[in-house]
Every structure is written in structure tokens, then in C-alpha cells.
Amino acid sequence: MAESARQAGYFCISGRPVYGGSFANLEKVPEEVRAVRAGLGALGLTELFPGVDGDGDALSHSDLRDALFAWSKGAADYTGARTATLVIYATGHGFELGTDWVLAPTEYEAPDDQQNTDPGAVTKPASFIRALRQRGDLAQVLLILDACGAAPGGEQALLDTIAQAPYQTIDDQLDLWVVAAARRSEKALETVFSRAFTTALRDATAPSTDQPHLDLTQVMESVQDALSRTHQKARTVAGHGDPRCRALPNPRYMPPEPPAWLPPGWGWVSRGVVNDAAPGWYFTGREAALRTVLDHLTGTGTAPPLWLTGSHGSGKTAVLGRVVTTATAELRAALPVVARHGVLPTDDLILAAVDVRGRTADRLVADIARSLGLTAASVPGLLAELRRPGSGAVRGIVVDHLDEAKESAAVLTELVESLAALPAVRVVVGAARQLPDRPARLILDLDDPAHQGASSVGTYLRTRLAYGGHVSEGAVAALEAICGGCFAAAVAAADVLVREGTGSLERACEAAVARLDGLLRRTLQELFPRTGAAVADTLTVLCSFGDDLFLDARTWAAVASRLVGTSVPTPLSPRELAACLPACGTLLVRRDAPGREPGPGDAGDVHGAWRPRHPPPAARRRAGAPPYRAAPPARRTPRGRPRLGQRPATPARRPRGRRGRSDQRYAIPPGRP
């Protein structure tokens, strides 16, 4: 990861608006500086010397030269491969002084005859390059001169670099590219070049897995086209060294190889892919949730645990993984540019993150202690070490899948709540839902519409499919409608399209549906361990008769109980069923049942009606399922559909000899006497 950080791109800017003597002030220089700073920053480049008086402020030319010399000495002893790049943008007055083209000094009383200017006060463009001689990791420099008649200054800088080449080893030579905003004796108008250049940068960026850098030739062609309506003609002075300019990274370049340096267990889910071997960085959206989690982890004083909840597949672990994999400056610096977006930590987090599935409190202690640099081997020992006076820095602890721990209630009581009670410890818990009879005080529910789960899933699909799959916008919209707020389904669908191509849209839809169906069945079986399969089958089959069919709680509970039969002595009640359905989150669609009013003893949402968000999976539409799972296709007619909001009845005319048998047409048991 250290080497990855060395492959960095930098930029710096010089230009001041105030001149003296015969040089007029350049009032729009701050506008130029602001535009170029934003444009180069959007490429993922790191600014070396930010302005101290706002984003329109920059160093003078001579101050930049001195700053580059000091910066160069900082890597004089570096012996690794040269990989870093630097963009230098200098704007202001430029003129020919004797045989040299120079940048005019700012805040200097220039004489009326500019040829009498003190040579020690001006800055030659070549001096920027000479100041970098000691920078051992620097491979390439792009020098941009935005001043009148700048082309000769670029040529001089290039010739000076070429002249020095015979006296340096090949490994010590610096590649140089020069761009001049105006040719000899041309006037460079304020903001004209900076606006054209930053627009060209923005237009040149494109999703790619094989083009890590922008093509400077293409960028300058766009600049020339924009300047064609003026008398100004920018020029690219030929580069020295590598024929490819690598100083302008493509911010939408997606590395084709998966990273090997992310914290174990969190990498693939935080990148929006199916496993660690899959390449790509596709985390999108969920900024409000990330900001809430980070604010909690970095807060001061004691606070109860923050519960990050949501239905299976809503992206809880991805949000936590995004925090874990960007927790330090070193991790953030190693991210590819395409992944440096959205809400990120601003400072280093002291963080321990554990997945508690199938584990007890005692088995988690060692992992937490190790991550925090402690030696505790038991819960009391860990609490004791964390109580000791220290640096005062807040320690954050992420506990994911608490509801799937071996003894979740014990883990919550003995470990999580005890940790949260300490003054310098903040805890975030990830779980599909709160534990029974243990209501949480702080809850961040990803199923809440405020977190825009469906639109975030759509953004994810568009982002990922820009690098593979390449389906139409209509196809993406169709997948978005199927997935709803379920990221797990979107990942499964996108994986099929990327792997198999555009002809696999139907299989991608089936993959999303199968994932949704599996998550719904998993949730219902967790909520109803003894009847969950029957509850899922009842809803799936009865709603498969039509896209507009919704199942009310009374019918749903009655059919599911009859399917289970005598294996469960107590039938599932509508009240019990309706009380648990909110845990299914976006996996279900709900509406009010027509004509249904709450009856005596009704509670919660018992008078609603539901259907799965997804259509029936292909496997359940085909032959081979038991009669209660699939009605004969020939009988699926509008006339034969169950009435919404009413308990579906057996046919009005029942053939003799079938009394007491289940009605296989509607998968509804005979009414109880």
C-alpha cells in the first residue's frame, strides 16, 4: 500500500492578481486559479501548496519556485521507481526580457520600459523544473503557462531539460510536457484558456478499465476548438521522455485487478461486488447514513450504541465496510481516484470492527483488543483497559450482524452496552432488526425512505454497468424497479450482465428475482422458525396469479397455518403475522386492503395487504412444484382470481365426492366447520 501511495499525482498553482508599475492588475486571476484548482482536483490530484486566503488564492511565481525546491529535497533519498507526476499551472503576465521569456513579478514596481526589469525579480519557466531535480520519486511534469506569448517560455524549459539530459542517468531523467496558452506575440485573454482547459478535462473523462490517464492530445484538441472563436491559439510544446503524458489521471478509470490490501472481511462488500476476487469499486450513495455513522463514531462523551438496521440486502454491511476501509489516511490515499467520492472520514479513526455471526462475547474480545492495540483476553479485561486514562482519543467499535451472534442477547448486554457506557468509546451495531424486548435508543434504518434506497440502487446499477454490461437505460430502469431498495439483488443482477454481456438481461433479472426471493424466505423463516416456509409459499403462490394481487393478513395466516397442518399445534394468527412484517422492509409491497376495517382485537397492520416486491422466480413458475405452490396455468384467468380484500372462497359449485379436500385451483384449504 505504501508503494500505491507513491504512485501519486500532484499539482500546484502560481499567479497573483496585483502587479505594480507598468504591469496592469489581472483582476480575473483568482477566477482562473479557482477553476484550475477545481478541475485538477476533480482528477484526483493532490494540491501541494493550497492558497491561504481562499480557493482563489495562489503563490507568486518566485514563491512557487522556492516551495518546489524545498518539496524536492523531501524525497531526495528516495530510491524506488519513479512513479509520481506533477502538474504546474502558472498564470499572469509574461514577456520577453532580452533573449528569455519570463513571468513578470507581482507586487513589483516594474519600470515603464519593461526591458529594464531586474532579471533577479522575474521567474523563468525552466526554473520550476530545475527546482525539482532532487525529487527522487517524480517521473513526469506537465507545465502549463497561461500568459501572453508563452510558447517561447515553454520551448526554453523544454530545451533546458534536453540540455541537462546527457549529464544524468536514464533513471534520473524527468519527463516533461509543456502547454502554452498563447503563441509568440499573441495576447492571452483572462479566463479564456482556463475555462477551455477545465471544460476539456471534464469532457475527456470516461468510464474505462484500460485508460488510466487522459489523452493530452485529445484534451488540447478540445481546447483549440474552444479557442477557435478567439485570436488566441494554445500550443502543446512537444514532450521530452515518455511519449505518453501520464500527469492527468482519468478519474473514472476502474482498476481491472481486485485490491489485496483492504481489511479482511470488509473489502468486497464495501466495493459493491460479489467476492474478494471480483475487481471494481462501485460503492455509491448512502451519504446521509455514512455521515450519521461517522458522526457517532467520532462524537464526544458517552452515547448508547447506534443501531444500523434494515432488511436483508439493504446495504448495512456495505455502509459499515465503507467506514472500515477508509478509516485512515493511508487507506484513503491508496484508494483509486474513482473510489474517492462521497462522505469519507476527515481524520484517522481508532477503530475495531468485528463480524459476530455465530460468535460469543468472549470470542470477540481478542479481535477487538488486537485492533485497538490492547492485550485483553476477556470482557472484564477489555473494559478495564479501556477505562484506563489514555490519550483521550475516541475509540470506535463496529459490531456487525449482532442479531446472528451465537448468544446475541448476551453479546449485547455483556459486551456492546458495557463498551458504549465507557466515556471514550463509541459503538455502532449492524443488524437486520433490533433484538426482541431490547428496544434501541439510537436507530438508523436503511429501509426508511429518507435514505432513498431505491434511487441509490439505481445509481449503483448505472455506475457498475458503465464498466460492463452496457445495457440501455430502459433495461437499467427495469432492473431498478425489480430490485427496489435491495443492493444484494442489484449486485447479483449486475454480476450476470458484466460476466455474460448484454444478451443476458433476462438472466440478470432472474438473478435479481432469485436473490430477492431467497432474502424474503430467509427473513420469514427467521421471524417464524416453525412456519416460515409455509408463510413464504403462501404469499408467493397466491400473488403469482396476477401482478395486482395483494394478500391480506387473515387469509395469509389462515392458508399458511393449514399448509403446516398439525405439526404446529397453534395456528399462526393475523395479529402475529402483521406485527412481524415490517421486518421484511422493502422486500414486500403493502397497501390497504379494500373494504377491510380493523376488527375486534386487531392490532398494528392487520388490515393491510401485501405481495412480494419481485415477480415469482422462474424456478417456481415451472412444473414440478407441489400443487399448493403453482396453480395450473390454464386456470389463471381474471375471472378466477381471488377477490382483493376478502377471504378467497372455495368455488361456488363443488363437485361431489371432493368434500373435505383442499381446493387445488386457488391453493386454499376448505373452510373450517
Structure in a nutshell:
The protein has 673 residues and is of the alpha/beta class.
Overview of this protein structure:
The protein has 673 residues and is an alpha/beta fold. It has four domains: 2-240, Rossmann fold (3-Layer(aba) Sandwich); 267-449, P-loop containing nucleotide triphosphate hydrolases (Rossmann fold), CATH 3.40.50.300; 452-518; 529-640, no CATH class. The chain contains 22 helices and 18 strands. The chain has helices spanning 2-6, 29-42, 61-73, 125-130, 151-164, 192-204, 216-227, 267-271, 287-297, 316-324, 329-334, 361-371, 379-387, 408-420, 453-465, 473-483, 487-500, 505-527, 532-543, 553-564, 574-580, 618-621; strands spanning 9-14, 20-21, 46-47, 84-91, 94-97, 100-103, 109-110, 138-146, 175-180, 235-240, 306-309, 350-355, 395-400, 425-430, 442-445, 551-552, 588-592, 608-612. The protein has a six-stranded mixed sheet, with helices on both faces. A five-stranded parallel sheet has the order 12-13-14-11-15, with helices on both faces. A hairpin with a 2-residue loop joins strand 5 and strand 6. The protein is elongated. The protein starts with a helix and ends in a 52-residue tail after the last helix. 45% of the residues are buried.
